What we know:
Blueprint: H1 3-11, H2 14-23, H3 28-36, H4 41-52, H5 73-86, H6 92-108, H7 115-120, H8 124-137, H9 142-155, H10 161-168, H11 171-183, H12 188-199
Helix pairs in contact: 1-4, 2-6, 3-4, 3-6, 4-6, 6-9, 8-9, 8-11, 9-12, 11-12
Region (Disordered): 62-91
Pfam family, one: Tra1_central
Amino acid sequence: LDAYNFRATVGRSVPLLVQEVAKNEVLFTIAQHLLANSNVSSAFAQVLLDYLLPRIHEISGDKPGKTDEGKSTETKTAEDAKATEDEKSDAPSNSASILLRLFKITFGSVTLFAQNEEVLRPHLQAIVWGCLRHCAICDFPGNFFVLLRSLFRSIAGGKFESSYQELKSLLPVILTSLMRLYRQGQDETMSHIIIELCLI
């Protein structure tokens, strides 16, 4: 398949892949193998980013609150039973972990294939802003700090000058945001990650 047909064909299957990985973690190797294949790596990286970016908020693992006002007892009981049945297969923390890992292996692929940097670069600012925004408002921001660290490590070291330039103008704002989050009193692990982010 050429890149266009690969994206059109495989792109439709990414939601299914994520669902199946939640049931059987071994299937995550499918994504790893595709990103490690020089023939399709850049196309698959684009497919993953197209899927992941609109869902970046989901990596926090927060479970959205729901209001029960106006619902009958029978309706709530049925919904509670359904939620209990689905708890293991649809746990937010499990989904968050899968999405985070997909982001991380996509970032890591730029060290394998130079063309993957070209795929990632247009999305850098959106990823950084998304992480910083959700760090400030969600109850469990740890995964966003981990995602930023993974991104910065992938493009650090002077190998990816174009990506560095893409973020260079944002560095003062990024540092200010990180220090504000640090002063909010994150736990020790998160504080260490924030310090590392400032130093990368």
